[in-house]
Each structure stands twice: as C-alpha cells, then as structure tokens.
Amino acid sequence: MFSDQKVNTGRQIELDLAKCMSIVFMIFLHCLMVTTGFSNDVSLPMNRAISQLLGGPFAAPVFMFSMGFGIVYSRNQAPSYLVKRGIKMLILGLVVNVGEYILPYFLSGKLLDRWDIFPFLDGLVLFIVDILAFAGMAMILIGIFKALHLSAIQMVAIALVLSIAGSFLRFTDFDNTALNLISGYFIGSAGGFTAFPLFNWILFPTVGILFAEYYIRCNNKKKLLCLWPLALIVANAYFVASWFIPNGFLSDTHHYYFMTTIDVILCLINIYGVIGLWQFVSRFLSDGAVRFVSKMSGNVDMIYIVQWYLIPLTYIFITFFFKDIVYGDISLIIISVAEIIVCSIIANAYKSIKKKIKNNKSAP
Q1: Which of 22, 100, 248, 361 would be a feasible disulfide site paired with 308, CB 3.0-4.6 Å?
Q2: pLDDT of 233 above 80
Q3: Distance linking the first and last C-alpha atoms of the chain
Q4: Are 120 and 105 in contact (CB under 8 A)?
Q5: Cα–Cα separations (whole angstroms), residue 117 to 111, 124, 218, 310
C-alpha cells in the first residue's frame, strides 16, 4: 500500500473538502453562539446538531488535523519558517479577539444598550485562546520539534504525554487571574480564557503530520480509507452517548474544549472517517467543483478571521433595525449561509488583491 517514494503529491481533494466543511460547520456554530445572546427560539435538535456534533468534532479537530497534514505537503517546512508562521498566527489570534469580543461589546452597548451579550472581562478577552492562537503555538512547537530533528512518531509521543497531562490538569484554578490567563494557553484553566489549550489539542496537528507522511506515499487511498463507515459509526456513537453523560465529552462546551486523551482518540477516528467519506464523494465531483473546493480551502484562514468580524456585527445591526426579532432555526440557517458566502467572497478578493500587489512589486 505504501511506496518508498512520494507518489501521492499535490492537492488532495478529500482533505480540501474536509477543511472547507470544517470552516462551514464553524461558521454555523459561531452564528449559533452569537444567537444565544439575543432573543431566540432555536430548537434543541438544531442546538445538538450544530453545537454538539457538526460544530464540534467535525469542525476544529478536523481543521487542526488538516494544518498538520498540510505541513507535510508544504514546499517550506523549515523550522524558522514554521516558527515565524506560528508567531503570525498568534498575532492574528489577537486580531480575531478584537472582532469577536471587543468591537461587538462596545457596539452592542452603544446601539442596543446591551453590555451583557459579549464578555469583556476588563479587556482581558483580547488574550482569550481561540483556534488561531492555538494554531500559532502548535506551529511554533512543531517548528521546535523539527529544529531538534524529531520524527513524526516522536512528535506524536510527546503530544500524547502533553495530552494526558492536559486531561488531568483541566479545570485547574490558580485563584489568580493572571496565572489562569497565562496557563490557559497550555491547559484548560478556570476563568474562561481558553477554548483550545495547547496540551489538550496538540495531538491533532502532530497526528496529522504522521498521517500525511504515510498518505503522501500511499499507492491506494481507497484501500487505506476503506474502514471509513465503521470509523464514523464508532466515533459518532461515542459523541451522541456523551450528550447524556454528566461531564461527558459533549455534555457542555468546556468538556469539549478541554477534551481528554480518550476524547481526542475518538475525534481522530472520526477524522479518518471524514477523510474517507470525502474521498468517496470526491470521485463524483466535476473538475469545476474540485477547483472551487481547492480555492476555498486555500482561503480558510482568512475566512475564519473575517467571519468573526461579520457575525457579531450582523446580529447587532439586525437587532438594531428589528428590535422585536426572535432568532430561530430558519434565521440561523439563512444568516450562516449568507456569512459563508460573504466571507468567501471577501477572502477571495483579499487574496487576489494581495497577489496583484506582489506581482506589481516583482515586475521590472
């Protein structure tokens, strides 16, 4: 099944599809999260489908696995490049927090006289660990791993130890705001400062690297991914069961964000199933659909940044003009789809402008 040489190079449509759908599910989740701050009548089935399934295991874990996978397929894997990219992502994480928390806090307060919808925490929300902040830390750590010439298996072994430590250290309260904030970058500490602690999530990109090192040498992807239906059944049975277990994996958002090693393993099984599903679907896609997915996949980072500026503003302005509005399932779907389309257009326009400026600078 595996060659000694790289035989499966170039863009992998199934990974592009998985990455694209992860950002789609994230946007639905974030719209739902913002909806709950306003008058709403979102049904329990919609809540479960988005917040406890598609917007959870099918979103951020797939996104971070894809990041690790993409490192192997990248032209530049130099440790210095990965560290610089990680620092850039950390900064972008702060930029996202401005759009997600700070700007809507003041806007909803001024326009709606509602200062309770978006948390502010005396300005400390700027340092909340969102997925880009985690991605930045993970990229820096992987850059260090590569500088030390560690193999993918060694990276996964270290990540496994960190994950186990994170499983035992989650919900730690240092009785100090500063310590809770700083430690939140590494473990699931108290205080609401972190959604993606490094220790609990680092297995996703490192396993993504290990998987990609085999995938790039795979002679038969269909055979490699043949167990995808079983993987989806097993993983999702675990996910659904956890809804009803006290302190279960998907019983609330904190247990999801501070997931244990067992939870991570089930998410990885689900990711294998997701890749297999999209590899199956990709056989029926037209060339135009493949090009569209590839382009969107290349824009997901910018789409993620833009959506955290647009989603809160959309709800604030809709509520400002329609004060008695009650958000429900239909409005959630409509707003989410609209945000996906607008964010994709903006991200694509940004990339085109950036490319044009770069070409003009390089022209004689």
Answers
A1: 100
A2: yes
A3: 48
A4: yes
A5: 12, 16, 49, 16
pLDDT at 357: 80
Task: Give the other-Cβ count within 10 Å of 78's Cβ.
Answer: 12
d(CA 44, CA 279): 32
Q: What are the phi and psi torsion angles at 63 (to 5°)?
A: -60, -45
pLDDT category at 80 given cuts 50, 70, 90 is very high
B/e letters for 264-284, b = 16+ CB within 10 Å, e = fewer, are bbbbbbbbbbbbbbbbeebee
Q: What value does the CA radius of gyration of the chain take, rounded to a whole number of Å?
A: 20
pLDDT reported for residue 363: 62
Q: Using the 8-state DSSP alphabet, how is residue 2 labeled?
A: B
Which tokens hold the place of 81?
């490049």
**What angle is formed at CA 247 by the lines to CA 246 and CA 251, rounded to 5 degrees?**
85
194-225: pLDDT as tens digits: 999 999 999 999 999 999 999 999 999 999 99
Q: What is the mean pLDDT of residues 172-192?
A: 92
Tell me the mean pLDDT in the region 153-161.
Answer: 98
CB atoms within 10 A of CB 252: 14
Let me know how many helices (H) and strands (E) the chain has, helices first: 17, 0
Burial of 256 (0-12, 13-18, 19+ CB in 10 A): buried
CA distance 97 to 103: 9
**Position 37 pLDDT exceeds 80:** yes
Q: Is 288 exposed, middle or buried, given 0-12, 13-18 or 19+ CB atoms closer than 10 A? A: exposed
pTM of the model: 0.94
